[in-house]
């Protein structure tokens, strides 16, 4: 790792699945794993995969005698194939069948280029070198390109090159899903468009999304495109061009493969195949396309980069995280109807579904590219009708968003899943994570805080907040004995606990996080009355059928929600009855399985159940300290008539730290965050684990199936907001840096309410430079004092 680059200087087949995920190139519209151009899916080392934002398809599989329907994230035709051989009597190039003299692969994040240098000797003693470069254009979302510089090092002779588009792919990237149906594509057409251009047209078999790809392949013996002998072969789902030419020892030639990709989900198109072919004719050379691509990335980095002066490792990994975030959510999504998949556009894990991980992802976007958060919130807004249907079906009012969302916003969580450890199909009740709806309301509010986007709040945001508040007020039931409201049959963020050990009913009662979030949403909805004009409020109430009685109930709940505590202590119980669970033998299991464990799978394979133990998969109660400042939380609890003192926060952190297995990469983010002020050393050690979640694949095999975007964005946000103490409250942007020594010096740019602010922080000083903005001055608070910043202002503070 060096600054802007991730480099691999030897070929390690066992590492290839991880490298493919980490070297994925994408532009928000589509992405392709960093598989080698000459490779095909072999279920072990290589898995070329191409994924389209919003590219879903449903299939029904028979599992344990049941029909199970899954909405999958389709693996689209592979546009990469490029290979060579010496004659039609010889085999196509295969890295495993030659002697590698040198190998180097480099992900250049600055230019978003994947490069590979190969120098090898074949069985006949011929030495060849190939230098390949590849990008997925950030300038034109429909374009990708590969360049090969091919050198016959010690031989002269014929060479046959193959450039293809392969549509016979299936979804085969996640071993656990292999027992399920996986053929999503039906081939429609293949053919030749121009002498150097071929095309492929496919369609998904259920959602009927069409994709056309066109590939133009040219060979240059510098400086001119040279005449090669060309043959086109086509099958129903595959098209290739074979190019033959004579090579002179020591003389390189260049091959360019430029690809266009259009789908029936696109705007401003007529027919996908026509558009793919028409537009490929208009494209310039590899070098010209690369220049445009680089310029687009430099604009993005200009907004989003973050500099750590004295920690190279953290610097590079944080850049990698920003890089993958921008490849999943780029400015191209602004006009698209897509959400942000938890595992990026990088693999098939979790089927490209959208979870609450947005909560960890949006804060970074809010302060750099808020237009993207707005687009991603609109994905939720467009799915309000489905959320209303889900609420109604479950007997509630308002909008209940699904735990896992895909194309339409119906619940996409699986009802049973395969435990790879035991081979058993196990019931899955994690869809009871109703807290996701609160997360969505929270995201709307945070976006508004960062942007003051009244138009969005008025026309979409408030409708979501009101309808979600209405849902919470109807799922909450009044318990006259306690004189408090309760919420039953839910699952909290900790997915290990889905029911009580002695019960047959799924769900738990009074998950503290859920109950407090419900109150927060209702308060937020009530607070919105002070911002919106009355006529808009009455329009919305009329549309959503919100009555005065409903409001009465909202107000009542916001003072009388039940929050469980453990006995007489100040420890918030994760859910009611948590204290009755057994203590877990942590030492024994940590010795065997290490720090991060999937205890649900381990215990099930041992005939036990994690539901019986005080053992959490991830932060649950601590989520409250992650999302709210002490002041906000103490106020919330105070309003509910519970006494929570600042010192109790620490006790809660210690209690749950000892009972969490970090079986989700999100967990360490939260643990690092909640310690950021009180214990910088422990915060940093948690941060370090979160930081390497993907580069070191700490969950043991999950990253190859897709990166963990929540953890990636979460680590960047930890530096951006956690360690700078950034908080937007009462129309003031508060800063209170507490940098860990390991960071030393931090440089970043933030977009806040239409302005750009530059922050330079060290452990001793904070400098704020206020660039030009398009709206009025803003208030920035440092260590309790509020300052007004206008264009050109610069101030320095002692920390
Ligand atoms: C975590 C969830 C998360 C999901 C997708 C699960 O392992 O428990 O909190 O939303 O992964 O990232």
UniProtKB/TrEMBL annotation:
Domain Glycoside hydrolase family 65 central catalytic: 319-716
Keyword hit for Hydrolase: yes
Keyword hit for Transferase: yes
SUPFAM superfamilies according to UniProt: Galactose mutarotase-like, Six-hairpin glycosidases
Domain Glycoside hydrolase family 65 C-terminal: start-end pairs: 726-787
InterPro entries in UniProt: 6-hairpin_glycosidase_sf, 6hp_glycosidase-like_sf, Gal_mutarotase_sf_dom, GH65_N, Glyco_hydro_65_C, Glyco_hydro_65_M, Glyco_hydro_65_N, Malt_Pase/Glycosyl_Hdrlase
Alphabetical keyword list: Glycosyltransferase, Hydrolase, Transferase
Gene Ontology MF, one: hydrolase activity
Coiled coil: none
Domain Glycoside hydrolase family 65 N-terminal: residue ranges: 7-265
PANTHER family in alphabetical order: GLYCOSYL HYDROLASE-RELATED, PROTEIN-GLUCOSYLGALACTOSYLHYDROXYLYSINE GLUCOSIDASE
Record-stated family: Belongs to the glycosyl hydrolase 65 family.
Protein name as annotated: Glycoside hydrolase family 65 protein
